[in-house]
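Data's thin. Show one?
=====
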Amino acid sequence: MAQLLQDDKDGTCVASSVSPLFKKMTTATVKDVCSDSHLPLTFITIIAKKRGRRHTKHSKRHRRGCPVKKRGAPQSVQTSDSSDLNKESAMNFRNTILSILIFCLSFQMVYSQDLTQTDSVSVQKEKQSIYRRHSIGSSLFLLGNLAPGDPPNYFQLNYGYHLTRKEVVLAEAITWTYYEPLGTYGSSSKSYPGKIKAYGLGVGYQRFYWKNLFSTVQATPFLQQFYDSENEIIQTGFQLFLQLRLGYRFEVFKHRWFIEPSAAFNYWPVNTNFPASFKDIESGSPNYFLFEPGLHFGYKF
């Protein structure tokens, strides 16, 4: 005990096992300590050792560079931890947003390429249809000119122009000769005392629907010449001939040639300047003819 606490010169009580810095803080005279506190020297020595160990740990942590917790400022440590968590969550959110944007951009680029390919295919098909937008044709009624009896002298020439793949405008030049009323053609009880030659130029519109199913509306004004039994022109007249045709187009030989079987509904509301002898035969006959069969053909270029 005497070796730990006694100094011969001053009579001071010092803990010899503590660090030099702590010696300055814990020096006290032996007389004061012993007289005031009446504590044994052994108890003072133990307290000095404990305080010295705490100071030694504190100094070692400073040497290592470790942060020292301060009792007076726990709130600042918690604030720094929460700010670090906020930064980390912000970084994660930003990375998620960037990943979503990259995915969306990639998907849009792929989808736009598909649309471009689809558009290119449709453009190619449109170019092919434009390449063959013209057509020229006629009717198989021409074969009626070979039939025995009075010849119909039937001639027809059609021209078509494709506005689109499904829309066609038509122009028609047609002529025929008939010997009985058109409303009862082929089943009339009486014939004209002569014949009528008609020359017409018409326009029409053709529309395609499902596949090659089509309808055609057409209007043809006719100049009519009335011939008597001596084959002399006795009078001229005018006729407006309207037609609605429904049919289907069959294309052959690389889609260049086509055949159109159809049925027509004909109506002529205007039919003027009939001679009296012709008018007697014409009276009582209808001014329409339903379900007229047709068979047109043509070539596209």
In short: The radius of gyration is 58 Å. The chain is about 35% helix and 35% strand. The longest strand covers residues 233-248.
